Amino acid sequence: MKIAILGAGESGVGAAMLAKAKGLDVFVSDMGQIKQVYKDKLAAADIPFEEGQHSEARILAANEIIKSPGIPDKASLVQEAKKRGIHVISEIEFAGRYTDAKFICITGTNGKTTTTLLTYHLLKSAGLNVGLAGNIGESLAEKVVENKFEYYVVELSSFQLDNMYQFKAHIGVLLNITPDHLDRYEYSLEKYAASKLRVAQNMMGSDFFVFNADDANIASTFKSEMFGGTTVPFSLQGADNAKVSYQGKEVKVGMQFYEGTIDTSASPLIGKHNQYNTMAAVTVAKLLGLEDEQIATALGTFRNAEHRLQEVGVAKEVTYINDSKATNVEAVWYALEGIKKPIIWIAGGVDKGNDYSVLQELAKEKVKVLICLGLDNAKLQESFKRIVPVMAETTSIEYAVRLSRSLAEPGDVVLLSPACASFDLFNNYEHRGQRFKEAVEKIVLKK
């Protein structure tokens, strides 16, 4: 059995390690340069690899190709493989063949990393034998080499879901569907939504599909009458079919054998979107038998990943929040909605065709200053110039923080929540968020 792997990042190298462990003939090819840490890992395992090219003859001689999620299906080599009848799959599909562990798979346009980390934290805190993998940055396939976990909590992007066929989750979670990455889906929201719904594929009655009943795009694309598993809708808006709801500071779960009322008052997460994320994670915990008190205690000890509504400091009664991961309008809407104090908002970057009109009412109500951080701020300025009392623009995050400090009053929140990609001024959203944190620490907290 010959396996070719396209892409030598975390996903591809993890798949290579598993293929080697299972005695398969494996070859790794990356059109770019491979990071040294991955070269060392492949060399130590005696796995042949190449970089800077694709040796098509060798790749197309494989019985199966494992494709890294960043490589689109329309890539010429992938198309040629399919023409020749060579099966092209994802690392997740491949890993699923070699373990009997139960998979808790989480996807959605927004919130999936927070929900994945929270779910993992709840289960691990309760003593379950659980691993963490997927789009979170850890290879599922490499973890399956040792196969020491009873459960895996797996964050899945739409790109990973696209090349999964026989794989089945025991619990699949779908948080929301909003337009994103549409260039990979022929600019069709329907095709993107269909990709997300693959998280519920192949389910049977003993499997659970946990989904947001308030999301219009899920409602219009999920066909429950064609579904073989057990549905568990959750809702903030009182949806008639909801089995899980958020009431005050409690999550109420009402299913046969899985009932509970969980106090969330100790949770550090803020905003309506995190109420959805919390409902999803709590639902998974209840389905796996955790007690209400166990869940409530673990909610209080959770610390989210960086750059997601992360408080980075308080000075002179002004709170500084890093939400650099908010690279689309919906994520910013949830940030603005969740903060109950006057806001100095830092936004901007590479616009992704944003419609800012959905933010205008919240901005009018809450935003006292908008600082546009980007090379081209014209669209942001045009959208908010009649709404926000004070506007400024800059290409320096240090200046943005310095200006925020000078304009802020006790009780205000300085919020970096860009609504845009970061690539005009930064390497990625992490770089942008780190620079913001450093500026706050240097300019604000040390003064």
Task: Explain the overall architecture.
The chain has 447 residues and is of the alpha/beta class. The chain folds into three domains: 2-89, NAD(P)-binding Rossmann-like Domain (Rossmann fold), CATH 3.40.50; 93-300, Mur-like, catalytic domain (UDP-N-acetylmuramoyl-L-alanine:D-glutamate ligase); 310-445, Mur ligase, C-terminal domain (Protein-Tyrosine Phosphatase, Chain A), CATH 3.90.190. It has 17 helices and 20 strands. It has helices spanning 10-21, 36-44, 56-59, 76-83, 91-96, 112-125, 140-146, 158-162, 189-196, 216-221, 272-287, 292-300, 329-338, 360-366, 378-384, 397-407, 429-445, and strands spanning 2-6, 25-30, 49-51, 64-67, 87-89, 102-107, 130-134, 151-155, 171-174, 208-212, 230-235, 244-247, 250-255, 258-263, 310-315, 318-322, 343-347, 367-373, 390-394, 413-416. The strands form three sheets. It has a nine-stranded mixed beta sheet. The chain has a six-stranded mixed beta sheet with strand order 15-16-20-17-18-19, sandwiched between helices. Strands 3-2-1-4-5 form a five-stranded parallel beta sheet, sandwiched between helices. Strand 12 (244-247) and strand 13 (250-255) form a beta hairpin. It is globular, with a radius of gyration of 23 Å. It starts with a strand and ends with a helix. The model has no long low-confidence stretch (mean pLDDT 95).
